[in-house]
Design a protein that fits this description.
The complex is a heterodimer of chains A (344) and B (619). In chain A, 49% of the residues lie in helices and 9% in strands. Chain A is of the alpha+beta class and 344 residues long. Classes of the chains: A alpha+beta (344), B alpha/beta (619).
């Protein structure tokens, strides 16, 4: 079987190699056999391997990496595996579980759990989904992953993110018979709709007996307050009116970390205090406006980032203002900058 | 006592080093100095892009960098460019600003340009004194090594000998010189067909090459925002990006430092092409706001600089620190905002107004703008040179015309001899700047205008010339072409010196507003506010001039034009002359001349008699 060669990838690799410094050890003096203990002395090979992994669109097995390493930088397969494992231990590469129909572990530049966690958050920020739909959505066009492994990641991620209130379990309602997951809490109006109709019906009935809706409501409120002490799973305070206000969900550490990581992803020099244009960061994240705005302000308060404000906010259009972050003093922040030493 | 917090805007990097807290923005300064080291060690051009809120201290970092270059053991050149120019004149402005920077003193009180040239000479001969013959030979070697033009080498030799310095400076800046100066300098005048922007770019690159591989050149760019002639204008930013890339790609010894407001980032990225942006931003850094402890260090350094020995500095510090602990708080503030706050408190403490909290020590906005305008106009009146008119008008005319009518915008010009084309709803107005001292060049330009301009409906052409550049009746060709253009309803307008000063003042007001450097009560004034204020002005010399340029009035008759030229020429020679004597010399009836002069009092002074006297109007 003839193996296909990606010509452009090959050229790119060659160019990378040409860029590298030719140290004496790259020359004829290179020892034919590698020493038993794994080397501090293979920086060039490691650079080549890292570049291959960085450029790969999916995680690669050690075999795949080994066969693509140019001759000059070759090393034994078992040495390569050890090198990859060592680097994964250092955190400069990431180990991935075996792909579908394989038993060989893989290596990539992104962490497996973080990768799928991102995809889960991204999918749920677009729409609420059942677990099955979520699995399908996360799997589609993603780096290959076995079904068992993916299910486990989805389950653990959902559990963790629901616990820290980044995600919410949406119980079945109306014609929907299955629980769903979303980035926002359930809309209680949907659940109280039937109750509301029943309340109106009762009021209508009692009107003939001369009992006004306010009396019915007072009685109902009384009943509710009694039952609330017994059990109030949602923690919703319904004393004020029938349109309950939800407690503001805290912004989770996961979201804060995602923001920092995304800043570094879209502007690599952000680590060196390059500014990140807030509309760009917002677009790259798929978070709701409220969550995003609060998360960035929390990061600023924590001293992890600083913000620069617009000199003349009055000159911005409403659409432009919507993409920035406002504070309580009428400032509109336009860029966010990582403080020195903060890389998430 | 002078308020120690009032002087809060560092207008340019050349200001003497005053109170400076090195810890503030040390990261930005460190980045620039490391980049400078890279230029020196690796022999390649690199760039730093500094972002910051208005008043965060971008220009202050440049100021620190300028002083730092003077302390380095090895020679380093510093140049600064404030971009209050027109996109069409970007390279010419860069050339002028760079040459002005090179004319500033470096080490040992010698100008930077002299030092660079002397360093190159020294590196070749390793001697501290050289003979005239050696100088010529060594200059020739430098010329060959660095691909310099013979004209530049000639100019450098004049400078070293301190010969014809004003003319050499003017030539280096690209200003127009009379024929006599060219022959005196033994420099070939530029070809009529050469594009001035190309010539300017080549001169900038030549000067960079002159510094050679061993002398790094820091070129700083401030007030980039001023390149916008009107809101959302991106042409200037695009061209600036291209210029930066040219400098980046075609030199090997530059550190390009660009400063912009953070809120301008979105517009800059839209306007500048990707490769140009990359060339501009090899290193990027954002200046942060100040924390309380940094704010206290700033005010402490200002208080320490108070020379009055009897003044209770501790009490002032405590008062300010108490206020700042609330003012700075979690929000953090820019250095300018903190100083503005302290300035107000200082005024309040010096002259407490009963029943008030913080005094409103600055006047209302419109009065503030008028005062600023008056002060800048006065300063411009005594400062601006004859050769600056082109730069002033190219920058400010499109903006001001757009303020008067938002539909009027500058459009691309078709002929190089028409310097600006303003497209208005009813007409397209071409503006040709004719500030040539060299009559042959002027005649050449007018000839080409005669050839290329034909009067059409909705198209007008206006010639502008500095009031102090007079056209002698003996300049036959020039007068002949002017008459022919006059027949085609092309008007020659000479703005008054007051109008020029007002235009320059408006240019700096608008540029400062665009760059966030115009503040009132600690808050930046938006350009729109200045535009509205200017629009609301009832009368001003700048507005009168604009009306003149935009009006469709008939040009002066050829006879009147000739009389005006002759009388101006006569006044330039005589300065003061009796009306009758002037009429006699000009072979014209006294009553006619008197009537003519009364119609042109802006150009010619007139004192009623007896005897009536004419005098040259000298501001």
């Amino acid at each position: 079987m003839v193996e296909k060669v990606d010509f452009f990838e090959f050229i790119n690799l060659l160019l990378d190699i040409m860029d590298m410094p030719l140290t004496p050890s790259d020359d004829l003096s290179r020892p034919k056999a590698l020493p038993e203990t794994l080397p501090e002395t293979l920086p060039e090979t490691l650079t080549v391997v890292k570049k291959m992994i960085e450029r790969a669109l999916k995680p690669l097995t050690a075999d795949e990496i080994h066969q693509d390493i140019p001759g000059l930088y070759q090393l034994k397969k078992q040495d390569l595996v050890r090198l990859l494992q060592r680097e994964a231990g250092f955190g400069t590469l990431h180990r991935w579980s075996a792909g579908p129909g394989s038993r060989k572990e893989r290596f990539w530049h992104q962490d497996e759990t973080a990768y799928f966690q991102d995809r889960i958050l991204s999918a749920l920020s677009r729409q609420m989904l059942t677990k099955i739909d979520l699995l399908e959505n996360v799997k589609k066009d993603a780096a290959p992953c076995s079904k068992t492994r993916l299910t486990r990641i989805v389950n653990t991620t959902l559990a963790a993110l629901i616990k820290e209130k980044t995600l919410f379990d949406i119980p079945p309602w109306g014609s929907y018979k299955k629980s769903r997951y979303a980035v926002h809490p359930p809309d209680l109006k949907l659940y109280l709709d039937k109750t509301r109709k029943e309340f109106d019906r009762v009021c209508q009935k009692l009107k003939k007996a001369g009992i006004g809706p306010e009396h019915v409501f007072a009685a109902f409120q009384n009943m509710l307050s009694l039952s609330r002490t017994a059990a109030s799973p949602s923690g919703v305070d319904s004393r004020k009116d029938l349109q309950p206000t939800l407690p503001e969900p805290d912004v989770s550490e996961t979201v804060l970390n995602r923001i920092v990581q995304t800043m570094l992803k879209i502007v690599p020099s952000a680590a060196k205090q390059a500014p990140v244009w807030l509309p760009d960061l917002r677009n790259a994240l798929d978070l709701s406006k409220d969550t995003f705005d609060r998360a960035v302000l929390i990061l600023a308060k924590q001293g992890k980032v600083f913000l620069n404000k617009h000199a003349h906010p009055a000159q911005m259009t409403n659409t432009e203002k919507e993409t920035m972050i406002a504070d309580s003093q009428g400032n509109y922040y336009v860029v966010v900058v990582l403080r020195e030493g903060n890389r998430g | 006592m002078i308020n120690p917090f009032r002087n809060r805007i560092v207008v340019d990097p050349w200001r003497p080093s005053g109170t400076d807290v090195a810890e503030i923005h040390s990261n930005a300064f460190g980045l620039c100095s490391r980049a400078l080291n890279t230029v020196r060690k690796e022999g390649r051009t690199t760039s730093v892009l500094l972002y910051g809120e208005t008043g965060s201290g971008k220009t202050h970092v440049l100021n620190r960098l300028q002083h730092y270059t003077l302390t380095l053991p090895n020679l380093c050149v510093f140049g600064s460019v404030r971009l209050h120019t027109s996109p069409n004149r970007l390279w010419r402005h860069l050339r002028t600003s760079f040459v002005e920077s090179l004319a500033r003193p470096g080490k040992n009180r010698r100008t930077q340009l002299e030092l660079v040239f002397m360093r190159r000479l020294y590196l070749l001969c390793k001697k501290t004194t050289i003979s005239f013959e050696e100088l010529t030979d060594l200059t020739e070697t430098i010329r060959t090594e660095s691909h310099l033009s013979p004209n530049l080498c000639q100019a450098l030799q004049h400078l070293i000998h301190h010969r014809h310095c004003p003319d050499v400076q003017a030539w280096l800046k690209g200003h127009s010189l009379p024929e006599s100066s060219y022959s005196k300098l033994q420099i070939r005048p530029p070809d009529e067909t050469d594009d001035s922007e190309d010539l300017a770019r080549e001169m900038v690159l030549e000067l960079c090459r002159l510094a050679g591989p061993t002398i790094p050149v820091v070129l700083s760019f401030d007030q980039i925002e001023a390149l916008q002639r009107y809101p959302k204008d991106i042409d200037g930013l695009f061209r600036f990006g291209q210029a930066i890339r040219t400098l980046h790609d075609e030199t090997s010894n530059l550190l390009l430092v660009t400063c912009i407001q953070t809120s301008f980032l979105g517009e800059l990225r839209k306007a500048v092409a990707f490769p140009d942006f990359d060339a501009m931003s090899c290193h990027v850094l954002t200046l942060g706001t100040l924390k309380l402890d940094q704010a206290l260090k700033v005010i402490s350094s200002r208080i320490d600089a108070i020379s009055d020995k009897g003044f209770d500095k501790n009490l002032l510090f405590q008062n300010l620190a108490k206020d700042l602990s609330v003012f700075v708080g979690e929000a953090e503030r820019t250095c300018r905002a903190i100083l503005s706050r302290c300035a107000d408190i200082f005024d309040n403490l010096s002259d407490p107004a009963p029943g008030h909290g913080l005094p409103d020590s600055e006047p209302p906005l419109s009065t503030f703008l008028q005062n600023e305008m008056d002060a800048r106009e006065e300063s411009a009146f005594s400062r601006i040179g004859l050769d600056e008119m082109d730069d002033i008008l190219s920058n400010v005319l499109p903006s001001l015309i757009n303020i008067l009518d938002e539909r009027c915008r500058e459009k691309d010009r078709r002929y190089p001899d028409v310097d600006m084309v303003i497209a208005c709803p009813d007409a397209e107005i071409g503006i040709s700047l004719c500030n040539h001292q060299n009559m042959s060049s002027l005649a050449g330009k007018l000839r080409r205008l005669v050839q290329n301009f034909s009067p059409e409906k909705g198209k007008r052409l206006v010639l502008l010339r500095h009031p102090q550049f007079r056209i002698s009746p003996s300049a036959k060709k020039v007068n002949q072409y002017l008459r022919r253009l006059n027949d085609r309803r092309v008007r020659l307008i000479t703005p008054s010196l007051e109008a020029l000063a007002a235009l320059d003042a408006l240019r700096s007001l608008l540029s400062d507003a665009r760059s966030g450097d115009l503040t009132h009560q600690g808050n930046p004034i938006h350009e729109k506010t200045v535009r509205e204020w200017f629009k609301s002005l009832k009368a001003s010399s700048a507005k009168a001039f604009l009306d003149d340029v935009l009006s469709e009035s008939d040009p002066m008759s050829p006879e009147d034009q000739e009389i005006l030229q002759r009388i101006l020429y006569l006044m330039e020679k005589e300065r003061v002359i009796a009306l009758t004597e002037a009429a006699r010399r000009m072979h014209i009836e006294t009553s006619r001349l008197e009537q003519f002069v009364k119609n042109h009092l802006r150009e010619i002074g007139y004192l009623e008699g007896p005897p009536a006297v004419l005098f040259d109007v000298v501001p």
